[in-house]
Amino acid sequence: MRRLRMFSPGPGRRSENREKGRFVLVPDPKVVREFLTRYASLRIAQAEQERQATARELADVSYTLCVMMGATSIHEAVAKADELLIAKGRGPAAAEVAEPEEEKDLSLAV
After folding, report:
1. Closest Cα to residue 64, out of 31, 108, 24, 22?
2. How many CB atoms lie within 10 A of CB 1?
3. Nearest CA to 27 among 3, 12, 7?
4. How much is the pTM?
5. Which neighbouring-strand residues pair with 22?
6. What Pfam family is a match, any one (predicted)?
7. pLDDT at residue 83, rounded to an integer
8. Which pLDDT does position 82 carry in this prediction?
9. Which residues touch 55 (CB under 8 Å, ≥6 apart)?
10. Which sign does the torsion angle of CA 64, 67, 70, 76 carry?
């Protein structure tokens, strides 16, 4: 399995938001998106046919998402990941593309 870079590289790539007087590391949105995609795929695969190997991998991906997002549950991790991806997508180019009203409150994964 290939190694994934979980956090944005380079010095000074910390969030300007401070949490209790400390800098907060922000996960790389590309890696977060990859883990969300893997999580969704594994959930679908497990729903179609339960397998022990798929369940183990789903547990690993769920745990990793929780750690990356600083969450205590997978639902909280997915919600935080959604917020991160939406916030990172609001650059100058993304501001020109309006989000359809019916998709505005949909989670990216779960």
Report:
1. 31
2. 3
3. 7
4. 0.64
5. 19
6. DUF5133
7. 93
8. 93
9. 46
10. positive
One DSSP character per residue, 86-98 reads HHHT-SHHHHTSP
What does the longest C-alpha to C-alpha distance in the chain come to?
47
Structure token digits, residue 22: 């400390």
The Cα–Cα gap between 48 and 98 comes to 35
Backbone CA torsion sign across 78, 63, 36, 17: positive
Quick one: angle between helices 29-48 and 74-88, nearest 10? Answer: 140
Give the tens place of pLDDT for each residue, 9-44.
444 444 555 556 667 788 999 999 999 999 999 999
| Confidence class for position 108, pLDDT limits 50, 70, 90 | low
The burial of 32, by beta-carbon neighbours within 10 Å (0-12 exposed, 13-18 middle, 19 or more buried), is given as: buried
